[in-house]
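User: Can you help me understand a structure? I only have the sequence.
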Amino acid sequence: MNIFGIFVRALTKRKIATRNLNGNIPLVLGISPTLQCNYHCKGCYALKDKAQNELSSEELDCLLSEAENLGIPSIVVTGGEPFLREDFFSAIEKHRKLLFVVVTNGTLLTTHSAKRVAKSKKYHHLNKH
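Assistant: Let's start by predicting it. Here is the structure, written out as tokens:
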């Protein structure tokens, strides 16, 4: 499945969810899985709210599953620095039907972590039985 396939599949789910919930479903969900950051940039909002009320791994997984079920195809991820959370890599790997747009300072990306992110998006064709 390619990016186009993600959006087509999500559109169908969105139509059904919109009808069932009698309301609108957004195309994009914005999340900040952490406000922690490895930088301390002057003026950044992340300096003020360090690690308060962060979602647990289970809550993050539930949120992303719900987004998939509602037909929200894309997740914009900001922070703090999202890659400070090791479970964020697992979330990206698990939720292959979502398109993640990650706002990062890039300093925590290594060859290994970049390969891990890239590998999570090798879409598999669904069996048509």
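Now, to help you interpret it: The longest strand covers residues 28-31. Residues 123-129 have pLDDT under 50 and may be disordered. Let me know which part you'd like to focus on.
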